[in-house]
Design a protein that fits this description.
3 domains; two-stranded antiparallel ribbon; two-stranded antiparallel sheet; about 65% helix
C-alpha cells in the first residue's frame, strides 16, 4: 500500500514540501530547517478572510456586553462553569479573527485596537449600567483579564498569543494607570483549587502588599486564631469554608483594580489592624465579628 502525502510550504524558505502522512517532525530538504506539524497553518483565501474580519468586528464587543455580571461569578464553585459558558459563546469570534489574520487581511494589532475602540465607544453610549467610567473600566478590564485572555489562550489558535500580547500592549498604552497581566485558565483555576489558608488568605494578601514576610508575627497570630479559637466555634468550620470559596475572587478584583494599593491600605486601617489589636488583647470574639464583617462587605461589593 502506498503511503499518502500532502504538500506544505516551509515557513523558513517558502519552498513546497511533500510530507508523508503520520510524521510529526521532519526537515526541509531545501534549507534544512527542523519543523513540526504545529508550525504549519493552512492558507486562507482573501475573500474568506474579509468575511471573517467583518464577523469579528461585528461581534467582538459581545465579549463584554453579553456577559454583564460575569465578573461576580469568580468563586471557587462558580468560575469553571462561568468560563465554559463564556468560551462557548465567544470562541467563534476569535476563530474568525484567526481566519482573517491567516488570510493576510488583518493584523492582531489592528484587531486589538478595533476591539478597544468599540469598548470605549460603548462606555460613552451605554446608559443602562449607570456606572462611572472608572468603574466600568475596572469591571471590563476584569472580564478581559480573567475570562477573555484565558479563553483566547485556551483556544490555542495561531493568533492566540500574539493577539493577547497586542491587546495588553494597546490597553496599557490607553490606560497606563490600570494595567492587567496575561493569565491562563490553568493559572486562574489553580488559585481556586489550591488549599488556601482560610481566614488568613486575605490577611496574607494585605501583608504581602506591605512587604511583610509570610512568617511575620501578625500572620502567625491570625493563623493561630484560625486553627484554635475559630475552628472551635460552632460556626467556625463553615465560615472558613466560605472564605475558601470566595477569597480568590475577591482578591482578583482587588489586585486588578486601578487603585489596588489604596484598597488594601483601607482594608488595613478599617479592619485588619483593629483585628490584630483584638488578638493582642485577647478579644477573640470581637476579632471574629470584625473579620467576618470585612469579608461579607467585600463579598457584597465584588461578588453579589
Amino acid at each position: 500500500m502506498s503511503q499518502t502525502s500532502f504538500t506544505l510550504r516551509c515557513p523558513q524558505c517558502c519552498h513546497d514540501l511533500q510530507i508523508p502522512s503520520g510524521l510529526e517532525t521532519f526537515s526541509c530538504m531545501y534549507c534544512g530547517a527542523r519543523l513540526t506539524m504545529e508550525q504549519f497553518v493552512p492558507q486562507v483565501p482573501a475573500v474568506e478572510g474579509e468575511g471573517a474580519r467583518a464577523y469579528y468586528e461585528a461581534h467582538v464587543l459581545q465579549v463584554i456586553t453579553d456577559y454583564l455580571g460575569i465578573d461576580k461569578q469568580v468563586t471557587n464553585n462558580e468560575y469553571a462553569e462561568a468560563f465554559a459558558r463564556y468560551q462557548d459563546g465567544n470562541a467563534e469570534v476569535f476563530r474568525r479573527l484567526d481566519t482573517a489574520v491567516r488570510a493576510g487581511v488583518y493584523t492582531v494589532e489592528d484587531a486589538a485596537s478595533a476591539f478597544l475602540d468599540r469598548l470605549e465607544q460603548h462606555w460613552q453610549e451605554d446608559k443602562r449600567r449607570r456606572m462611572r467610567k472608572n468603574v466600568m473600566l475596572d469591571t471590563d478590564k476584569f472580564v478581559i483579564a480573567v475570562f477573555l485572555v484565558p479563553m483566547i489562550r485556551e483556544l490555542k489558535l495561531s493568533v492566540s498569543e500574539s493577539y493577547c500580547e497586542a491587546l495588553q500592549k494597546e490597553w496599557c498604552a490607553r490606560h497606563p494607570k490600570s494595567p492587567f497581566y496575561l493569565g491562563t485558565y490553568d493559572e486562574m483555576t489553580a488559585g481556586f483549587q489550591k488549599k488556601l489558608l482560610g481566614l488568613c488568605f486575605i490577611t496574607t494578601a494585605i501583608c504581602t502588599h506591605e512587604g511583610k514576610p509570610d512568617d511575620c508575627e501578625e500572620l502567625t497570630a491570625f493563623r493561630a486564631f484560625r486553627d484554635g479559637y475559630l475552628k472551635s466555634c460552632p460556626d467556625g468550620p463553615a465560615l472558613i469554608e466560605r472564605y475558601y470559596d470566595i477569597a480568590p475572587g475577591i482578591l482578583l478584583h482587588l489586585d486588578l483594580a486601578e487603585n489596588s494599593h489604596k484598597l488594601y491600605a483601607d482594608l488595613r486601617k478599617r479592619y485588619l489592624q483593629p483585628c490584630y489589636e483584638d488578638l493582642q488583647k485577647g478579644h477573640l470574639r470581637r476579632c471574629k465579628a470584625r473579620y467576618t464583617k470585612m469579608v461579607r462587605s467585600l463579598e457584597k461589593k465584588y461578588l453579589s
